[in-house]
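Hello K.,

You asked for the raw outputs rather than the summary table, so here they are, unedited. I folded two proteins back to back in the same session to keep the settings identical. This is the first:
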Amino acid sequence: MSDEVDYPGLEAPLVERVAWARHAGVMSLFAKKALKDAEDALRAEGDEHHTLDELYEYRMLYNALLFNEWERNGTYPVVKSMQHSDGEDCFGGGWFIVVAELPTGQISNHYRLEHWDLFQVRSVALPPEYDGHTPADAAKRMLALLSQPTPTTEPFDLDSPSCATPTPTAQDEETVAPPSIADMVPGTTFTAAATDDVWRWAVREDGLIASALGVGPMSALDPSTIRDVTPPPATPREDR
């Protein structure tokens, strides 16, 4: 039967025309043109938020993230190939297929060859034998997998000894007291918190401290936040 007879016609839904062109079994020039015309028309459609190009790109990226995770963790077997299981190039060339074998059945998707490197899964000459699944079958298999209980680790027993708060020891309680501003010589700089901000401060000759915030008493700072203490230079600087 010729391609022209098998082709559902321009009056058929676009999705039906694309599906026919992809699964016709022969990619004649007529079939390739029908596929291109239908896909070009589909790209112009979409919803109020995304074009179909955007949605297909999202699907491809989501799938790559998921398949790469399965491959990395050894969750399920995933392979990619530039040929179908019958040895024919995917859609006549320029495409590849990614196949995953789930506990609920086989799933697969095709992607343009330019995205080959995004899928960090095992590359094979021929993928597993196609089991005849349709997009609807693949969706049912994924939904069935989602319906299965997800393996989890044992929950923590908060009453177990391993979860108990350790009893502080004398060594744990030994802490170093923060530097005292009163013991710092004039010209010493340090970082400390005043109100809710952290600033670089300096000790003045008159016993006050100064920063970009202004001048204030030492009591304006939280002593526990003092750090980065830098003594003044050994040689006094000349007056300007």
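The second followed immediately with the same parameters:
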Amino acid sequence: MTAEAAESKKTGLQRLREPFAEHQISTKPQPTKKDNPKGRCPECGGWHGLPAIHLSYVGHAALTDRLLECDEHWTWEPLSYGPDGLPMIDQSGGMWIKLTVCGLTRLGYGDAQGKTGPDAMKERIGDALRNAAMRFGAALDLWHKGDLHGSQNDDDESAGSGAQGKSPKLATLASAKKGGETPDAPVDMAIVEQMNSTDSVPELVKIMSGLTKEQKAAVNETFNRRMGELKKAA
């Protein structure tokens, strides 16, 4: 690394906001409905329910590496503890945490993504760390599910990698058609599909928490309806 490059490299909280490299970004399919028929996905090649949205995310190892780059002494702790002295798990199976980086503390929420047993707590922790780190700006473009800062032209949008610019995987429904919508459905439609497909209150809350003010207003009716359905079914 040259002296100029080293000097220009961002540190601390600024480094946390830097886009992640493409090789640090993973994707996972999320069927638009729980009972969608399974098939070979033309986008990822996997075998899962179709149609599906492909969500981009940063894994636990990549996020931990970035946190250490920003602050070797970063810490996290549960927001509260139960009578047994262990981290408090709420009625929905989720956990609130406090993440401290460079002396600044922010909250995050994570759930076990349907897992049980020993892996459930590890999943909650990783999920909560990603959620809390997002409050610092980590992988913010991925959480936004679209083009966060705007693109200069259509070519820039189509060339987005997920961490930089617009990600087609986040902004569209993969191989989906509903009510005349083309596979390149608006991002708000993708959010609605996510809310309709989840059977988890924590996951529904997490989807809503990652939206902009304008997006929340657009899908608020869907959120309230789905929340009522899930609570009634519980």
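The first helix runs from residue 3 to 8.

Happy to rerun anything if the numbers look odd on your end.

Regards,
P.
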